[in-house]
Structures are given as structure tokens and as C-alpha cells.
Amino acid sequence: MSLNRGVIPAERDDELFIGWAKAPMVDRRFLLGAGPLLLGATTGLGWLLAKNLGDPGAGKWETGATHVVEGALTTKPYPMIRVADPSALKGVRTVLVVAQGKCTSGLDLAAREGLPVKASGVLIERKGRRMLEVPFALDKWLEPVFIDMPGVVANPPEERLGRFALSGMIMDSKCFFGVMRPGRGKTHKACAALCIRGGVPPSFWARDGQGRESVLLMTDAAGGPIGEDILPLVADPVAADGEIVRVGDLLQFRADAGAYRRV
Amino acid sequence: MSVKYQGVQWNGNKVVYDLYMFVALALFTGVFMAIGTTVHPDGHQADAVILLIRALGCAAFLMLTIVLTIGPLARLNPRFLPFLYNRRHLGVMTFLVAAAHFGLTVIWYHSSGPLNPFVSLLVSNPLYASAQGFPFEIFGLAAFAILFVMAATSHDFWLKTLSASVWKLLHMLVYVAYGLLVLHIAYGALMTEKSPVYVALVIAALAIVAGLHVFVGLREWSRDSGMRGLHAPDGWIDVCAPDDIPDKRAVIAPLPRGDRVAVFRDGAKIYAVENACRHQNGPLGEGCIKDGVITCPWHGWQYRPQDGVSPPPYEERIATHDVRLSSLGRVFVRVKKNALGKAGAFIDLEEAAS
Description:
The complex is a heterodimer.
Chain A: H1 25-51, E1 60-61, E2 67-74, E3 80-84, E4 92-99, E5 116-126, E6 129-134, E7 142-144, H2 151-154, E8 158-172, H3 173-179, H4 189-197, E9 202-207, E10 213-219, E11 237-247, E12 250-254, E13 260-262
Parallel strand pairs in A: 4-6, 10-12
Antiparallel strand pairs in A: 1-5, 2-3, 2-5, 3-4, 5-6, 5-7, 8-9, 8-11, 9-10, 11-12, 11-13
Chain B: H1 12-38, H2 48-76, H3 81-85, H4 87-110, H5 117-123, H6 136-152, H7 156-162, H8 164-171, H9 174-187, H10 189-192, H11 196-225, E1 236-240, E2 250-254, E3 260-266, E4 269-274, E5 288-290, E6 293-295, E7 302-303, E8 320-321, E9 323-325, E10 331-334, E11 347-348, H12 349-353
Antiparallel strand pairs in B: 1-10, 2-3, 3-4, 4-8, 4-11, 5-6, 6-7, 9-10
Helix pairs in contact in B: 1-2, 2-4, 2-9, 2-11, 4-5, 4-6, 6-9, 7-8
């Protein structure tokens, strides 16, 4: 006859751990080994998980420091200031302008369109691409200046480089340039979509057929701000055919939202 | 045991248990942050808030994995009973760590935008119909809701109010929460982080939890199956010989309708009670007789073997079963339970021998 013996039998009743009583010696000995083992294992796991984190990429957000730029303000296709800089491509350094938080569309800059300004804010920078984060109240960061702005700086000519088929990922420029590190991938999708919905300019982090990597400012096919139809595709691997246009030092990728497809 | 309710009931063992939990969590989070900040070259440092969000998320998953392995480990080896004793605190702490992960995520990724942060959480990734792009946040949110309900009802007040069976059923949702967390990770972090270490660790955690549960389940099924079909037609089952029961311990036998009975021996006397503790359905038969009373191995709740009533001032009751010695000297147990509080017939081996 087979028997069910339940718990492993013990000779002495004090060998069973009872929470409110003093722990038996056999359990104390076990715990003296298991406790440090547990602490060692959790420490080791913390090390292993952090050691294998992906590189978030270059990027900085210089909170606590004020960065000042002087140049021509434009809102087309997104708020930006073009600064005369002989060291930059075509002598123009483009500094995108975004508001604090994720609501850049709240910046009312229409009345300053094309005017020379002095702007101060927090610098966000990734591999030479610059952005200024500013408060909503214009008088806190923006003042008119009287400087001679060469036409090629204030209103640089558009240089059409042709049509390209690119694949890559759509990111919000603010997080991708350095506010969030990493500011890409599926875990950042919702944040990126929220930022772009709030008016932060989208960037296309793309590779061409030869594998060359580039970050391009996204506009619609006519060069205007791209619509919210793009939001479901943000932070996913996508491909698109479009036109690349150089404006000053900045590359724009011009394609309507419908031209992008998930790959 | 529950004569009155307190916010948290402490004793020396619980203090040591909680201390280990805090130190382990602090070590894990601290090492994760320190290594995560320095692992990449200058200018490529990860954001401290995102690192903390990830550290807390990993910690919550690790803690829930440990919570789920403690039960089967304690069934396999009583040395793991100390880990089970204060598992409730570990569960509540898991919820608090998950809450910190959730709160920081909502603030960092979803606030200061054109949408309400909680609306943003639900709509910012609209790919609900996509097998690959499905918003991983939803899995995490559902798991968090379950953990919240479990943490909110973790106190013995709710155990008594809801009844042990309902409470236990509610807390079985932890397995649903764990599955949702695995999906949360698979659709989020594993689609972002490229290192195979993450995939391997999640698979290992899942395999350990599932493997332990299946192994323990099969072991019990195998033990029970040897006893099935042995019950006598007059409503009694032949459990074992008296000497098969270690003194102060029990033999557990399955009953025809699926319950189990625990047959205890205290010196020359043999008693039978239902196997499920009134507290959290703990396996009484895996406990012992201490100071003359049956003591549950999970949290030390006690019952007199004669009538199944907790010693005063406690008032919990479990049902007894009648036992008798057969003409062949075997221990027979009546399948039908006695009414709660009613003393069961027991065997006195000394009397039988005389």
C-alpha cells in the first residue's frame, strides 16, 4: 500500500520554523548562508542588468546654465534662430527653439518672425545639433537686438539635394538631442509622440542605402510642419521616400506623413 | 492570529526579514544606478531619472519572481519556511516599488504635455491592433492594478472579512499580474534594449517560477494518486499504520472530494483535522504539534487537535475528522468532517494496546 507521508518527517518538533518563535538552529544555520547569498545575488543582478544597458548616445541638456544666442528668429517650419557662425556649414548655425516641458506650440512667436533677437535659455545639444529650451513668457528669454544679419543667414537659400529612400526612426528632437538619454526606442514612443503632438519638431534619425547615418528635420512635402498623422509611427522602424533640402546648416527631409511606412 | 487588528504586526523575525529586504533593494538599486551611470563613455551617460525608473522596474519584477518562488520552495524544503513567513511584507513592498516605477514613469514620460498624463498613458501609443507595436504600458498598468488590489487587501482584516477562500482566490491573481509583467517587459524593454542578457534573464525567471510550480504540483499529484480509490464504502479511508506517522507530525491524505485530511500523532494519541489552515489555507499537515497544539507551518496559527479550536484568546476553528484503529491495526479516518468546534473521535494507542 502506498502511503502519503506529507512533510519530510523530523525527529524533533523544534526543527520546524514557526514565525513567532525563536528560529531553530538548523534554520539559523541555513539563513546565515542564504542571507548573504541573497544580498550577493541581488547586487550581482543589479550589476549585470546595468552593465548591459544600451548606449543612450551622445547628448546633453545643460540645466543650471544659461546659453545666449543672437540671430534671426523664424517659426517656419518650426521655431528656430539662425546664428551667423563662420565655423558652421554655409556660415549658419541653426538653433531650434522649444518651450519647457512638452508644449512648444504654446510659444507665441508669430509677431517676431524674421526679426533679429537675443535669446537665452538652456542648451540641448547632440553632435553639433543645437536647441534652446526657453520659458513660455517671451520677456523672460527673448529681446530684440539691432545687429546686421546677412541675408544668407537670416534667410538662407534652399539647396535641393534630390529624392532619397531612407529608413530609420522618427524621434522628437528635444528628447533625442539630449533631454532624455536614451530618448529613442519603444520605451520612449509615448513620450516622443506626446512631445511631437505638443509642437516639438520631429527628427528623422535615418540611414541611407550606404548605411550612412544622419539626423534630418522632418517637414511635410511642401516644407511646412508635419501633421499629427505621423504620431502612430513615432519611435518605430520606418522607411520613406522624400526630398532632402539643405537650409543653411540644417538638412530637412520633406515627405508627407503618408509617405512613411512601418518596416 | 486575529483577536485584534494592528497596522503591522512586528516581531524579531519580521524585523530581520524586512531589514534584509531593504538592504537587498538598496544594494540592487544602488549598484544599478552606479554602474548604469558609468558604463558608457563621457557624454553618453544615461539620464538619472530613466535609470531609476529602470532600476525600480527591474527590482519589482525580481521581487515578484522571488515572491512566487517562495511557496513551492517551502513545499519542497522546510528550510525555506522563514522566507514564506513574512512574504506578505515582501509582496506589499513589491507593490510600493512598482508604484514608484509607475509614478516616475507618468511624471517623466507623460506629464507637462498637451494631454492629461493618464490620458497620454492610454493614447500616446495608439497601436492597440498591432501584434508587435501594442502599447506595453497597458500590460504594466493592468499588472499594477492587480498589485494594488492585493496590497490593499493584504491585511488580516480583509482576510477575515472576505473569508480565506475568497481572499486566496483574489490573491491568486498574482499569477495574472506576473504574466502581464512579462508581457510588459517583452513589449517594452526587450524591444528597446538589444542585449541578449535581458531576454535570457526574463526567460530564466519565467522558467524558474513555472518549473517550480509544475514540479511541486506533479509531486503532490503523484503522492495523492497513490491514495485515491482506497476509501472504504462505509465512508472511512485507510490512511496508514500508526507508526508511519512521526511523533508531533502528520500524514496528509487526499479525500474523495478533493480536500485533504491531516492525521497528527501526539505521543500515543492520533487525531485528524482538515488540512487547510483558516488563515491562508496553509497546509496544516506540513506543520507540527507544538506545546500540544497543531501549528501551521506558514504563519504559526494554532489549533487544538481534539476539537480544532484555537487556544484562547483566539477563536479560529477548523473541522476535525473521526479516526479509529481498524481490526488490522490501521488508522482509519472518516471522510465526513465533524461540525466546526466538535471534538473528533481519536485513537489512544496505549489504551488500544491494553
